[in-house]
Amino acid sequence: MTTVGVPAGWPATEEEARAVQDELRGRVVLDEPGPPPGTGRVTGVDVAYDDERDLVAAAAVVLDAATLEVVAEATAVGRVSFPYVPGLLAFREIPTVRAALDALPCPPDLVVCDGYGLAHPRRFGLASHLGVLTGLPTIGVAKNPFTFTHDDPAGARGGSSPLLAGTEEVGRALRTRDGVKPVFVSVGHRVSLDNALAHTLALTPRYRLPETTRRADALCRRALREAVGTRAAGDVRDAPTAS
DNA sequence: GCGACAG
DNA sequence: ATCTTGTCGC
């Protein structure tokens, strides 16, 4: 199991983190359609936290895009690299997520993130940031509309409506299940919005959330439990004998 | 100034 | 994200 420390030079303040976003934002590629939905492999990434113990666990799960069966998976555990600040989520998740991706035995191809890409106060959310750092095509599928506005999409699966920052479309609210709250899709890096929506629908044959994020969520929680269990056992072993 | 705010 | 039991329903 890979263990990750906070990378050298990682931003320590909100000001530094925002400056990094402003600098890297220009490297996002928006004029590529990305891989065709339903073909090749699609990787989901997610992270679970134990702030008390300063632990983060990340998982990367590779699915066959046609069958949605698991092809490969990897996890990594690390130290919390940044506090949760709306708009700066990437600085909290990326080091451990990258370690998990690096630990995969095969190329990640398209990466589906649990959060946003372009739909971000500075148009550089987690999915875009991860895409720029890895060079991989990425999209973001979030569970909440963040600060953005949208009309309620048509009630049937496939219904969508623009996700708006003022009048600018930064993503789409997409209904993945009939009559169920939509998910919020935005482009990360090297994928078009229409393609991101098609991928999201291809990954939701049964549940609201993409199979990629469901699998990654389950795996990173398990990895965190195991890491905590290991640490707790060590603490007990190393602790002074109680009276 | 206050409240909201991906995970 | 995380704290948390049972419960209603397909």
Oligomer kind: single chain
CATH class: Alpha Beta
Number of alpha- plus pi-helical segments: 5
Q: What is the makeup of the main sheet?
A: 9 strands, mixed
Brief summary of the model shown:
The protein has 243 residues and is an alpha/beta fold. The chain contains 5 helices and 9 strands; from the N terminus they run E-H-E-E-E-H-E-H-E-E-E-E-H-H. The chain has one domain: archaeoglobus fulgidus dsm 4304 fold, CATH 3.30.2170.10.
Describe the structure.
- DNA repair enzyme involved in the repair of deaminated bases. Selectively cleaves double-stranded DNA at the second phosphodiester bond 3' to a deoxyinosine leaving behind the intact lesion on the nicked DNA.
- It comes from Streptomyces albidocamelliae.
- By secondary structure, the protein is α/β, with parallel strands linked by helices.
- The chain has one domain (29-232): archaeoglobus fulgidus dsm 4304 fold, CATH 3.30.2170.10.
- It contains 5 helices and 9 strands, in the order βαβββαβαββββαα.
- It has a 9-stranded mixed sheet with strand order 1-4-3-2-5-6-9-8-7, sandwiched between helices.
- It starts with a strand and ends in a 5-residue tail after the last helix.
- The model is unreliable at 237-243 (pLDDT under 50).
- It binds 2 DNA strands through residues 46-51, 84-87, 89-90, 92-93, 113-116, 119-121, 125-126, 140, 142-147, 184.
